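Record 1 of the preview.
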Amino acid sequence: MAFTSHVRDRRDIFITDDAKGFINEGRRSYLEQKYHTKIMKANEFLDYLFEYDREKE
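->
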């Protein structure tokens, strides 16, 4: 249900630690391509934010 809302609202990044449901066995690539979004685990998102912050400096 959360992913449905995410897609409907055209959000950029969906954060989940549900690897079985959203990441494993090619699910991440399939969902990202089909719904034009990024799917990240919480730790991946934190890394993304730190990198984004470094680029702004």
